[in-house]
Amino acid sequence: MDLVEHYRRLLSVAQWLDMGLNWTVVQRPDRPVGPEDVAEVVGWSGWEIREREVEDGLLFDDSGPSTMLLDTDGGVFSAHEHAPLERLSAGGRVWHVEWDVNGRAWMLYAADGHIRLWMHNLDPREVHGPDPHALDHLVHLLPDPFTIASRASALALVTMDSGAHLDPEWFELPQREIHPLV
After folding, report:
1. What is the rounded radius of gyration, in angstroms, for the C-alpha atoms of the chain?
2. Sorting pLDDT into bands at 50, 70 and 90, what band is 32?
3. What are φ and ψ of residue 3, in 5° steps?
4. Domain membership of residue 32 as a residue range
5. Residues with Cβ within 8 Å of residue 67, at least 6 apart in sequence
6. How far apart are CA 163 and CA 156, in angstroms?
7. CA atoms of 78 and 129, how far apart (whole Å)
8. pLDDT digits (tens, 9 = 90+) for 57-110
9. Cβ distance 64 to 165 under 8 Å?
10. Helix (H) / strand (E) containing 5
11. pLDDT in tens, 139-159
12. Quick one: which H or E segment has residue 180?
């Protein structure tokens, strides 16, 4: 099954993802990203790992050669706040795909501590940033924006470039959450 079809299936099975998704993938060649790295980037002085069902929270998992963060609340990493994503990309690369209930969608790519490009509405004609051609080898695969195909294609693009992979089965199993201590 090709990747776009895989993610179309995921989005049809996990229909609650239509309400919003915030998926960040980090890849560092020297070492995996740990929960302590994430906590430091977002400024949490205290945190713990909890195993829980996929619900609200910042879920953390290794996926292929990458580490993925699924923020079901959508407040930790954002397409509108570049600094945390830039810090997370120091010494590596970060892909961030996000959409919300209002139909707005974004994709960002950062490498070596700097945002390289961002794409509004997952529209390949709306790629901006200091290196807008950084993902040209993949961006041309995206279909027209504002469709479920564009969302599935954006997820597939991240998988093709990072090796990270979301599966419907992943959502059915308990996952690790990075939980801030108040």
Report:
1. 15
2. confident
3. -65, -40
4. 3-180
5. 25, 26, 27, 32, 33, 60, 61, 164
6. 10
7. 16
8. 788 888 888 999 998 777 789 989 999 999 999 999 999 999 988 888 999 999
9. yes
10. helix 3-13
11. 877 776 656 568 899 999 999
12. strand 175-180
Encoded tokens for 147: 């469709």
User: pLDDT averaged over the chain?
Assistant: 87
Tell me if 128 sits within 8 A of 118, measured CB to CB: yes
pLDDT over 60 at 134, yes or no: yes
- Which one-letter DSSP state was computed for residue 165? -
Per-residue pLDDT at 177: 87
Domain count, the chain: 1
Query: Do the Cβ atoms of 98 and 23 come closer than 8 Å?
Result: yes
DSSP 14-67: SGGGGGEEEEEEEE-SSS---HHHHHHHHT-SSEEEEEE-SSSSEEEEEETTEE
